[in-house]
Write a sequence for this structure.
């Protein structure tokens, strides 16, 4: 039984811990609060530590064969807090000899004309996009210097069980659709958009940890064919049996700017609105070709997500 350390316990970290435990590994989850208030999962232990504290994280990762970076600072603190977190993850992986599997997103590319592929430059100019790009540049430099062995799994916007306040198709959308209510979204509700299912993220990260020949680069997580917010909302409403036409409206820049005055999250999202103003489509063919894995079918994603929200509402 090998030790796998999951840093962060958001939707992806929690799903990953369950996948790893299901594979028979000993899983150690590192968060600021430890196991307080957490449901007990067989094979998963919780440790309280500041993930940005290199000494504390190194101690928590002792004996690990893999360290998974699933934690992230609040959006408004990315520029200030990501460097220390990335440094601590590298230090823990270097000291333990564990492979470092980073969870990344697509912000680092910046606005792109066409489909997003892993060989595109990390050319973002916004604060959040540059912060994410620098994280991978820092980790990759450590890998190329021989200090660590690292790989990054990049996902588009999360969808699925466990995704709440941080998801564009989550807390601000699904509960309303279950009640037959209208929903709002950033940008154009009819623009094609890639949504990455959280259980697929977890499975990909676990697989990359054991694939030595895949290390040293970034991979796009298997993601279903792009669907617009309106199309996804219609599928959720149909699964929920809400009936009737689905009403989806896009938030104008003016409305988003006003909402940002009271909502820190919406204020930060103005920088990446371009992802919703037009097509935002990820190419995951490299991962699919290498591992022979496809994303979970959308119908299954929607059914599991609706069931999770219904259970949460009880």
């Amino acid at each position: 039984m090998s030790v796998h350390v999951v840093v962060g316990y958001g939707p992806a970290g929690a799903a990953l811990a369950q996948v790893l435990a299901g594979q028979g590994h000993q899983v150690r989850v590192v968060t600021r609060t430890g196991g307080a208030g957490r449901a007990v999962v067989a094979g998963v232990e919780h440790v309280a530590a500041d993930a940005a504290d290199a000494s504390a994280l190194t101690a928590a990762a002792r004996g690990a064969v893999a360290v998974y970076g699933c934690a992230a600072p609040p959006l408004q603190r990315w520029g200030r807090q990501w460097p220390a977190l990335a440094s601590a993850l590298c230090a823990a992986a270097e000291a333990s000899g564990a492979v470092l599997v980073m969870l990344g997103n697509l912000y680092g590319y910046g606005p792109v004309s066409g489909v997003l592929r892993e060989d595109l430059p990390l050319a973002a100019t916004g604060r959040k996009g540059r912060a994410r790009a620098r994280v991978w540049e820092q980790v990759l430099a450590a890998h190329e210097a021989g200090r660590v062995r690292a790989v990054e799994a990049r996902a588009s916007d999360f969808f699925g069980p466990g995704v709440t306040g941080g998801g564009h198709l989550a807390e601000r959308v699904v509960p309303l659709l279950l009640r037959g209510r209208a929903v709002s979204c950033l940008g154009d509700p009819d623009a094609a958009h890639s949504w990455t299912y959280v259980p697929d993220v977890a499975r990909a990260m676990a697989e990359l940890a054991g694939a030595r020949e895949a290390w040293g680069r970034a991979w796009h997580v298997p993601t279903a064919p792009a669907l617009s917010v309106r199309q996804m909302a219609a599928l959720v409403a149909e699964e929920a049996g809400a009936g009737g036409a689905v009403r989806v409206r896009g938030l104008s820049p003016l409305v988003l700017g006003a909402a940002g005055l009271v909502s820190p999250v919406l204020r930060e999202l103005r920088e990446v609105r371009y992802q919703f103003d037009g097509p935002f489509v990820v190419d995951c063919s490299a991962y699919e070709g290498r591992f022979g894995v496809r994303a979970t079918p959308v119908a299954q994603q929607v059914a599991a997500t609706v069931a999770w929200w219904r259970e949460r509402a009880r």
